[in-house]
Design brief:
alpha/beta
Length: 88
């Protein structure tokens, strides 16, 4: 895996959906993955992301059991990534 794209989401369902759609539409010419940690959103983000992208092998959705904060959520995403390069 060349690139892991780490995304932390909190109550920005529509923006993160647009972000992931853009990453897929404009995919780099090498192997990549996107890892989204949903920071216990109350807007249905985790459910929407799982419904829209759950079957896509390039995207991992990790629903957090509580709001971890930006740094801890990135650390959680990093622990699940396998890219040679990391993009926050």
């Amino acid at each position: 895996m060349k690139l892991s794209i780490l995304i932390v989401n909190w109550n920005t369902r529509d923006l993160v959906v647009k972000c992931l759609n853009s990453a897929l539409k404009n995919a780099p010419p090498f192997e990549f993955e996107a890892i989204v940690v949903d920071n216990h959103s109350s807007d249905g983000s985790a459910e929407a992301l799982i419904n829209l992208f759950g079957s896509n092998k390039k995207i991992q959705i990790i629903p957090a059991w509580r709001n971890l904060g930006f740094a801890k959520a990135n650390n959680l995403a990093f622990a699940h990534g396998s890219g040679e390069f990391i993009q926050l």
